[in-house]
Specification:
This protein is α+β, with helices and mostly antiparallel strands. It has 3 helices and 7 strands, in the order βαββββαββα. 27% of the residues are buried. The mean pLDDT is 82.
Length: 140
Amino acid sequence: MAGYHYKLEIVPSEGEIHHGENYWISQQPQPEMLNEFRKILPNDSTWGETEEFRSETNHSVLNIWWEDDKVWSVFVEYAPVDEGKDVFLDEILSICEKFKYVLYSHRSKKRVQPNKKELWEDFKLGHPFSIYKDRLNEFH
């Protein structure tokens, strides 16, 4: 596992956001979006009603949680890569932008637009990012 995960939930772009709330209760996410998310990470570790996809290094995870045949939560636990370009982060941002969803940061309890500049500002505010100081090329 990575030293630290940046936990982000994919949420609708409008409406109030409250920590721990079922963001998809009034409107389910688009099936096309879910299908695109399922293709990002190579290792399918699905169990029960939870779809779980992991990176090769097991550092980053994407979960689609179902309850009573409805999506309850879509979230990622992101860990910056050791070296090179991190396709996972780029794909998450691209899909959110394409389908008009935003991210909810569990650490700052704020809605974050799906772009690296806003993510970097949010990441710096609430995370012990110094452990990654030499590996944060993804945000720049």
